[in-house]
Amino acid sequence: MEEVNYIKHLNTVFEKFLKDNRLNPTHISLYMALFQVWNSTRFSEEFFVIRDEVMKQSKIGSKSTYHRCLKELDSFGYIVYMPSHNPYRGSKIKLTKNCTSSEQVIYQHSPKIGTSSGQALVPKYKHNKTVINNINSEEENFKNSDFNDSENNGKHNSSVPNTDNLKTTKNKNYNEPL
Fold it and tell me: Model-level pTM greater than 0.85?
């Protein structure tokens, strides 16, 4: 096989995955596991797979799901699957060339960098300035509360009972015992 560009191949195949409504996450996971095995064989034309290893890599727990997805990926044109039917020899897989392109692939769903003439987007979760204002106003209210005034004037607020239970004052005599 001609030299495979890892990034171009993945971008092309992800673009195809996005457009193909027949695929589910199991298909994609299996394809990625097969791609990893293909990469480890240095992108050879064909390679053999060991079912248990590929199932472990793709997080597929059922043999029937594994075989169904392999057959479907084959019928959808993503791979060529040649089962061995021999327990001592793995199945032969060939990743198709139509997923690899020689020209530059532009992933259409990548974020665009730069300025645009369109409407600026506002983030969904904005910092709420009113919360900060409420905290600041509560601090001010506490500073201006009757509790602080009661120490200065000797008056107690009747709505808050026992505001000075500890008999605290601002002028402390540190010579007195506690």
Answer: no
